[in-house]
Each structure stands twice: as C-alpha cells, then as structure tokens.
Amino acid sequence: QMITFIAWLIFGALAGWVASILTGKNRKMGPVANIVVGILGAFIGAGIMNTLGMAVPVGFSVIGFLVAVGGAVVMIGAMGLIRRG
C-alpha cells in the first residue's frame, strides 16, 4: 500500500512538473504544487477521456502519463483564467 502511494506521488509529481514546464509556470510552482496538479490532472484527463467516450488507461503507462500531463495542463490553464478574472 505505501509503495503504491509513493509511486502515485512520484507519477503525479512528474506529470505536474512536465505540465508546468509546458505552460511556462515551472518557476512559480514548487514540488508540492507539481504533485497536487499532476494527481488532479490525472483525474481531469481521465474525466475528459471518459466524457469523449474514449478508453481511460489504468495504471502506470505512457498513455496514462500523457493523459495526466494533458489534464494538468488543462488545470493550470483554468487556474490562470480564474486568477485573471
């Protein structure tokens, strides 16, 4: 259980970090924000795929990582819009 939890933290951190680099927010976000954004991004990405009727990847995979990064990018973009408004 603890190994799975740690693995998800690492997976989320990597996804959040890549998303923050892609959006140009890397300098403003710290490691904790990267983890949170990456994990929430995975849920957002899976939700978007589910809404579009696409198969949602389960577990650790390249596709799962790309979905998490995509969801994290959407989340960072939405947070930027909310802060501007």
| C-alpha Rg (nearest Å) | 13 Å
Kindly estimate the percentage of residues that lie in beta strands according to DSSP: under 5%
| Structural class estimated from helices and strands | mainly alpha
C-alpha end-to-end distance: 41 Å
Number of helices: 3
Multimeric status of the protein: single chain
Find the count of extended strands (DSSP E, 2+ residues): 0
Morphology = globular
What's the mean pLDDT score? 86
Residue stretches low in confidence (pLDDT < 50, at least 5 long) are none
Q: What percentage of residues falls in helices of 4 or more residues?
A: over 70%
What pattern of helices and strands is seen along the backbone? HHH
The main sheet comes to: none
Describe the structure in your own words.
By secondary structure, the protein is mostly helical. 76% of the residues lie in helices and 0% in strands. It is built from three helices and no strands. Helix 1 (2-22) packs across helix 2 (31-51) and helix 1 packs across helix 3. The longest helix is centred in the last third of the chain and has 23 residues, at 62-84. The protein is globular, with a radius of gyration of 13 Å. The N and C termini lie far apart (41 Å). 28% of the residues are buried.
